[in-house]
Amino acid sequence: MKIIHTVSDLNAALAPARDKGFSIGFVPTMGALHKGHLSLVERCVENNDICVASIFVNPTQFNDKKDLAAYPRTPEKDCALLATAGCHIVFAPSEEEMYPVPDERVFALGDVADVMEGRHRPGHFNGVAQIVSKLFAIVNPQRAYFGEKDFQQIAVIKAMAAQLNLNVEIIACPIIREDDGLAMSSRNTRLTPQERLAAPRIAQALRESAHLYPSKPIREAKDYVLEILAGEPMINVEYFEIVNGLTLQPLNEWADNNFAVGCIAAWCGNVRLIDNIIYNK
Ligand code: PAF
Fold first, then answer.
1. From the candidates 37, 88, 124, 211, which is the catalytic residue?
2. 186-278 maps to which CATH number?
3. C-beta of residue 191 within 8 angstroms of C-beta of residue 163
């Protein structure tokens, strides 16, 4: 596995593969890798001739500078895990390499970016669109792999790729969970032992709410999750919405749609966690 830090070195490393017409798959990450990331890499390795993974903690997508400073960074361990998963090339650029000049672009991401994470983390999705569009331009992959834990992010990246007429297939991969249901996330390492015990209640509440689909009104499923988590002293829900999985707009009735997704953001202590459940798939 090659570890590359500059765009020119990456171009040189990929040139032979491009000349031979090899397919290139891409897994963008911010590092602090866990089994969720590795499942993306494994799928990428399986379905492409070359797998490129990037490690870059992108400052433009952090609306909270404290969150950026606290974001875990474990580059050596990440590279060892990527090698074991069969990744061929790791692209780990510096901030100067990715942003030689400030990126002033503002993306028109449409309604999918205005709700939930978009409302609660102003500027976040524009930052994601900036970095992912740059990485796509550099790697030029046929396929790119993203985890469904960041359900809304996938819709936003599809909107960005459509806006820029990019010829890349965006592949959504299922959430990987700990044994107790907690969705794997790089942020989980920041939970205290007590918070770590409380955090799986988020996934459990989502799972239990699925029992109300489709016999009870959506309102009841929403209230169920909110009430259960209101009883957890360590958990503070920022939002819980049941939305149309394609448009990300709130649903009033299950019957309005055959792709209903419950999306939650909640604080567990000082750590902001997101998770979701697909009710009817
Ligand atoms: O999901 C992430 O880890 C990041 O948002 C991404 C897609 C790597 C862009 O920085």
1. 37
2. 3.30.1300.10
3. no
Every domain range in the chain assigned CATH 3.30.1300.10: 186-278
Residue 68 CB partners (closer than 8 Å, separation 6+): 57, 59, 62
The structure tokens listed for 110 are 């449409």
Q: Which residues contact 13 (CB under 8 A, 6 or more apart)?
A: 2, 4, 89
In which residue are the tokens 């009841």 written? 220
Question: Which residues of the chain form CATH 3.40.50.620?
Answer: 2-173
275 lines ligand 1 (CB under 6 A): no
**pTM for this entry:** 0.97
pLDDT, tens only, 185-239: 999 999 999 999 999 999 999 999 999 999 999 999 999 999 999 999 999 999 9
Query: Does the Cβ of 117 fall within 6 Å of ligand 1?
Result: no
What homologous superfamily does CATH list for 2-173?
HUPs (3.40.50.620)
